[in-house]
Amino acid sequence: MRKLVYFIACSLDGFIGDVGGDAASMQAFATGDYLDWLTAEYPDTLPSAYRAMSGLEDLPLKRFDTVIQGRGSYQVGLDLGITSPYGHLREIVASRSLARSPHPNVELVREDLPGRVRELKAEDGPLDVWLCGGAEVAGLLLDEIDELVIKTYPQVYGSGMPMFGAVFSVTDFALDDVKTFANGVMVRTYQRKR
Fold first, then answer.
1. pLDDT digits (tens, 9 = 90+) for 22-36
2. How far apart are CA 131 and CA 154, in angstroms?
3. Rounded to a whole number, what is the distance in angstroms from the first to the last CA of the chain?
4. How many Cβ atoms sit within 10 Å of the Cβ of residue 21?
5. Residue 161's beta-bridge partner residues?
């Protein structure tokens, strides 16, 4: 069975973006040994435009073959004219407001996102499903998340968008791995306790 992995960036105080969802300040930390690690271990999570610009477009998929994101996360690319930000993956966007998909590679899911995720997890294949964001989608899919990979950047936001934007009961995860980098980034991996 494939896993749903919430691979997400956050501030020291647990916010994945400011009150409007903007996390652009975190991009300054995609440097040095951290960027090298990210490129080697999670190349699938690099946007297609970055992969092309960096000569990485031919990198084989390593961890994920599908990405799921909410309408807000997807809107960041749309505002820049990018309709398929992760074109090297199967892209799924949870949205009730988009009338039709802006790109043939982007599947819109309007209802029963957890059901669609269960279908994806039941598919045969060695690669997992990446939950990219945002907070509401992560809250809706909490019961389906099997692994958390939290990239913590050395910034404090004070307020903003939390990692999970829904009311739910306490859910336990077990710490599996911790990596630290020279620029202050820390990556923690947790496995779901079932």
1. 899 999 999 999 999
2. 22
3. 14
4. 18
5. 17
- In three-state form (DSSP H/G/I as H, E/B as E, the rest C), the secondary structure along the chain is CCCEEEEEEECCCCEEECCCCCCHHHHHHCCHHHHHHHHHHCHHHCCHHHHHHCCCCCCCCCCEEEEEEEHHHHHHHHCCCCCCCCCCCEEEEECCCCCCCCCCCEEEECCCHHHHHHHHHHCCCCCEEEEEECHHHHHHCHHHCCEEEEEECCCCCCCCEECCCCCCCCCCEEEEEEEECCCCCEEEEEEECC
Q: Are 133 and 16 in contact (CB under 8 A)?
A: yes
What is d(CA 160, CA 153) in angstroms, rounded to the nearest whole number? Answer: 15
- Give pLDDT, residue 124: 96
* Cis geometry, peptide bond prior to residue 87 (ω within 30 degrees of 0): no
Answer for the pair 51, 57: CB distance below 8 angstroms, yes or no.
yes
Backbone angles phi, psi at 137, to 5 degrees: -65, -40
Q: How far apart are CA 18 and CA 39, in angstroms?
A: 26
- Polymer length in residues for the chain: 194
Is residue 174's pLDDT more than 90? yes
> Which residues contact residue 191 at a Cβ distance below 8 angstroms, ignoring those fewer than 6 apart?
146, 147, 173, 174, 176
CA distance 94 to 83: 14
